[in-house]
Amino acid sequence: MVLPDADATFAPQSPDVARTDGGSWLGHPRQLARLFSIEAWERFGFYGMRGLLVLYLSKFFLLSDHQSNGIVGGYLSLVYLTPLIGGWLADRYLGSKRSVKFGAIVMAFGYFLLCFGGQQARPYATIDGTRYEVIQKQSGSVLDSGDAVQSIDRNGQRLVIHGLPDGSVQLLAADGHVADTIAKGAFGSGADRSPFFVAVMLIALSFVVIGNGFFKPNISTIVGSLYGPGDRRRDAGFTIFYWGINLGSIGGQLVCPFVVQYFGWWAGFLAVSIGLLVAYAMIQFDGGRLAGYGEPPVNEGPDRRVLIYALSIVAAPLVWLIFSNVMDTPEAAAGSGLWGYVVATPFLGKVLFATFLAAVIGIPIWSWKAGSRAEFQMMVAAIILVVFNVTFWTLFEQAASSLTLFADRNTTLELFGIPISAPNTQQFNPITIILFAPVVSWLWLALAKKGWEPSIQVKFGLALILVGLGFVVLASSGSFAGDDFRVSLWWLVLTYFLHSIAELFISPVGLSMITKLSIARVVGMMMGVWFLSISIGEYLAGAAAQAASVQTIGGQVTNPELSLHTYLGTFLTGGELTIGAGILLLALTPVLKRLMHGVS
């Protein structure tokens, strides 16, 4: 997602800010140029690593799809959860500017730790309990290994492993004949990997999550403090700021895969670490340009900076334990039902769901007791839309997991005859946002002049239908797959286009909706619930990607045909369910309209 941060548009005004612009940039306070650049470099790092992560886990550490997708979902859910704490600490103790600097340094350290992955994991296969070393003959780079051939030495023969759609595995001799067929369940795969370097990788992600919690909400707060009350440049200023987000995203997803292909995984993570150091340097050595902005609140008590910094670093092992639990929690047993799924849900998922359930039940009850009848009904409408928001992000955030793996395994990675890598495909989202955000904005203004602009709930419903349609369209690509069971990359381009337009329909509208429907004294808490819904959507996105898991050996699928059908079948199911959710929301429009009391 490359649109506004949690409190971007609605950043509270700092009472202690001295507003002396001393010049302008594009008609805005000149400080906006520096904040634009700082955010661009941070997003360069975040989205550069996001593009690499699932492939790094599956190709270098040779984790299973279930483990890789689970870690990615857990990581992204925490990325949207920790800013709630980081924003609160900044407001109470640190100030936005100190928080941003601390966050940048911690993230840079986390990205730098990712450079130390040790030796690549070594794959093996087990047949009826006997273990065999897997020999890989690869074509291409570490990112695009092409159609790698995996084989084992058995009974003096070199046998190629070929998976079948029913889960069984054939062992093919050099002349192509089937030397043996291994029944489903009798064949297994795994990898020898260093527990130490796996721990380093997880602790590195923990530092990134913690640093992000300090950086993400507070850079936007500083932007908001550039504008005085009633300054009409504010919205346009944030629009320029969002361009920095998207430009940084494009740069990271272009540069990082490139350096990985030519120098190795460590180089990609070093690039994102350098990006964060640049962001830190730009705010630390600002030449006084940001003096008076994002300063800490005036507190009469002791300075708690050192304590907060120390506790944040100490918290990294706790986050590491959460990641370890997400990675090691086994799948629910087949036929175990809802209770089996709940038991198998990692600790992070249990906490997220319990917190969200408490919020969506408790907040309406509180508003019924504390507010008027109209306020209660408006809060109920807001909660309903927040719940539908979870559905949207569950599907949209497949970009970081299943869509990237699908691009790697079952897509012809070529546009206009130019080869690209799987992480590069994530660029289609920010490119579409940059090109079409002004178009969508113009569309709403044009429709508003005619009195035809859709209401909030209609925009939400259309967003759900569009994101679901993106997957339904992609699911239809299977009929056009080649003999190598790969589809044209243009199908993925179309999917990302539909998803990006859907994002423009829901993300900024949702932020506005929260401020319009919430009771004034709890609007901050409701904004937190909104981003909690995104956090849960991110977590569920990882769980949904796990449903598309396929058998791999050495990071490569054993059967491309099975991989294609598994991905497309999962995409179709998710797309149809989400379109259904969008239609349901549109059907509820009359009810929501009454509950919203004229808010649109």
The fraction of residues in strands falls at 5-15%
DSSP helical segment count: 19
Q: Supply Rg.
A: 25 Å
The percent range for helix content is 55-70%
Main β-sheet: number of strands, strand sense, barrel status? 5 strands, antiparallel
What is the level-2 CATH architecture name of the domain at 1-15 and 24-120 and 193-297 and 306-331?
A: Up-down Bundle
Structural class by secondary-structure content: alpha+beta
Termini, distance in Å?
24 Å
Global outline:
globular
Strand order of the largest sheet: 5-6-7-8-9
What do the pLDDT scores average to? Answer: 88
pLDDT < 50 runs, ≥5 residues: 2-21
Q: Count the E strands.
A: 16
Assembly type: single chain
CATH class of the domain at 1-15 and 24-120 and 193-297 and 306-331: Mainly Alpha
CATH topology of the domain at 1-15 and 24-120 and 193-297 and 306-331: Growth Hormone, Chain: A
Subcellular location: Membrane
Protein name: Peptide MFS transporter
Transmembrane segments: 70-90, 102-121, 196-215, 236-260, 266-285, 306-327, 347-366, 378-396, 428-448, 460-482, 488-511, 523-547, 567-588
Keywords: Membrane, Peptide transport, Protein transport, Transmembrane, Transmembrane helix, Transport
Describe this structure in words.
The structure is a single chain. This protein has 600 residues and is an alpha+beta fold. Among the domains are: 1-15 and 24-120 and 193-297 and 306-331, Growth Hormone, Chain: A (Up-down Bundle), CATH 1.20.1250.20; 122-192, no CATH class. Helix content is 63%, strand content 10%. It is built from 19 helices and 16 strands. The strands form six sheets. A five-stranded antiparallel β-sheet has the order 5-6-7-8-9, with no helix packed on it. The chain has a three-stranded antiparallel β-sheet with strand order 4-3-10, with no helix packed on it. Strands 1-2 form a two-stranded antiparallel sheet. Helix 4 runs antiparallel to helix 5 (195-225), helix 6 (234-263) packs antiparallel against helix 7 and helix 16 (489-517) packs antiparallel against helix 17 (523-547). The protein is globular, with a radius of gyration of 25 Å. The two termini are 24 Å apart. The relative contact order is 0.16. Residues 2-21 have low confidence and may be disordered.
